[in-house]
């Protein structure tokens, strides 16, 4: 009897320990490593990414995650420096062992996760858009399913800008862009639209500026001389938020100033200021009239103060974290191969005009949507009654149905817009 009792107790203990192991295995945390620029030439946009991810994670942890205990979050500063990012990301992969990482959007640094993440089977996400020219020969950046993008190709952004200009009756367009992949690809998209739609407007001048430049007085004088009735400003680097203000101060502002996707929402307008942002159009990742956007802005203000507003690209990263929650819950595991497969099957949308996912074979976001918004006088929204402008939805567009490889087939031998070339109206 004693021996039988001992066996019974041992059996109970074994079963109990096995049950505890199952619970613990099911309740492991999900580790998310944020890689954002908190300093360097892109240090003006990284803090917003961090705030958005922290906000989403706090909400998710408070509500709970099916099958997992919580999300653990850690952030590293990329310093907008590929060498520094490589060193830091590799260290965290080897010591902290993240389950997923993401954050960097500037194309000078994105090549690092595109190279490292496949080697270490680390799923990676970008809350920004997909820059294409970096994948062209000499091929320093590989296409990979291990890096997933929220938005659409910058090649598409340039095409949408061209479509918008034509619809608005523009006769002459200036390009003011950063002197790197993103600026080139946006310009290629604009040029592609121009060539395939009968050259509906003149493109001049074409200007590329170093990313660390903040004073655009020389470039703006050139724009003033050329007198375009629209200027497209995809991203110029450190001085980007002030470009429109500098243009207005110099008396060089055309009828239409169209900012690129990273300006995105009222957060950009508030940084620019009511004077600088008034009348500006921007390719946007959200519809300011939706309830989802309203809920997000309210949560942001509750977390960061009534005078704050969601910053550049922040809504994309907020939505991306909720998408990751959906992915991990659906996968029911942290196995990276399963996570990548689930990313390619999963869609989630709350505050952005596009869903995050499902992903294509090389991390492209399938079925993305685009919008154009404009900032007009009057604090029409009670979300921000102290600011003198409000956003108005002007246009919505569906992006072309092309994979990344199909885009590369189009642009691989396609020259970018060149400053000294002529692009007259047809």
Describe the 3D structure.
- The protein is of the alpha/beta class and about 425 residues long.
- It folds into two domains: about 30-155 and about 310-345, Response regulator (Rossmann fold, 3-Layer(aba) Sandwich); about 155-285 and about 370-410, Rossmann fold (3-Layer(aba) Sandwich), CATH 3.40.50.
- It contains 14 helices and twelve strands.
- Strands 7-6-8-9-10-11-12 form a seven-stranded mixed sheet, sandwiched between helices.
- Helix 8 links the parallel strand 8 and strand 9.
- The longest helix has 25 residues, at about 1-25.
- It is globular, with a radius of gyration of 23 Å.
Topology overview:
Blueprint: H1 2-26, E1 30-36, H2 46-63, E2 71-77, H3 82-95, E3 100-102, H4 111-120, E4 124-126, E5 147-149, H5 154-167, E6 172-178, H6 181-196, E7 202-209, H7 217-226, E8 230-233, H8 243-249, E9 256-259, H9 266-272, H10 274-277, E10 281-284, H11 291-304, H12 314-331, H13 336-343, E11 369-377, E12 389-398, H14 404-411
Parallel strand pairs: 1-2, 1-3, 3-4, 4-5, 6-7, 6-8, 8-9, 9-10
Antiparallel strand pairs: 10-11, 11-12
């Amino acid at each position: 009897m004693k021996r039988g009792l001992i066996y019974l107790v041992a059996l109970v203990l074994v079963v109990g320990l096995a049950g505890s192991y199952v619970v613990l295995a099911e309740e492991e945390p999900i580790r998310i490593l944020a890689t954002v620029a908190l300093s360097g030439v892109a240090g003006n946009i990284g803090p917003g990414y961090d705030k958005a991810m922290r906000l989403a994670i706090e909400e998710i942890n408070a509500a709970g995650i099916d099958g997992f205990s919580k999300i653990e979050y850690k952030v590293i500063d990329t310093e907008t420096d590929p060498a520094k990012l490589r060193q830091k990301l590799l260290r965290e992969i080897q010591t902290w062992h993240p389950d997923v990482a993401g954050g960097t959007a500037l194309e000078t640094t994105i090549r690092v996760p595109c190279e490292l993440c496949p080697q270490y089977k680390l799923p990676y996400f970008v809350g920004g858009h997909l820059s294409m020219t970096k994948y062209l020969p000499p091929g320093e950046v590989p296409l990979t399913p291990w890096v997933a993008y929220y938005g659409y190709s910058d090649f598409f952004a340039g095409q949408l800008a061209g479509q918008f200009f034509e619809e608005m009756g523009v006769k002459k367009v200036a390009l003011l862009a950063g002197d790197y992949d993103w600026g080139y690809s946006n310009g290629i998209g604009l040029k592609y639209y121009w060539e395939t739609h009968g050259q509906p407007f003149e493109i001049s001048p074409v200007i590329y500026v170093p990313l660390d430049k903040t004073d655009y007085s020389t470039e703006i004088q050139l724009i003033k001389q050329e007198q375009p009735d629209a200027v497209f400003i995809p991203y110029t680097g450190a001085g980007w938020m002030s470009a429109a203000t500098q243009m207005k101060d110099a008396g060089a502002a055309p009828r239409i100033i169209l900012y690129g996707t990273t300006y995105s929402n009222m957060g950009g307008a508030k940084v620019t200021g009511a004077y600088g942002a008034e009348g500006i159009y921007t390719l946007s990742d959200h519809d300011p009239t939706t309830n989802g956007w309203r809920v997000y802005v309210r949560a942001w203000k509750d977390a960061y103060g009534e005078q704050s507003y969601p910053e550049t690209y922040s809504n994309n990263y907020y939505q991306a974290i909720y998408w990751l929650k959906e992915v991990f819950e659906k996968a029911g595991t942290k196995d990276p191969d399963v996570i990548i497969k689930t990313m390619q099957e999963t869609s989630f949308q709350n505050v952005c005009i596009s869903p995050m996912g499902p992903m294509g074979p090389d991390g492209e976001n399938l079925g993305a949507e685009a919008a154009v918004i404009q900032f007009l006088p009057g604090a029409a929204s009670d979300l921000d009654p102290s600011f003198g402008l409000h956003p108005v939805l002007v246009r919505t567009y569906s992006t072309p149905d092309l994979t990344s490889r199909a885009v590369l087939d189009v642009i691989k031998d396609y020259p970018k817009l060149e400053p000294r070339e002529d692009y007259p109206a047809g």
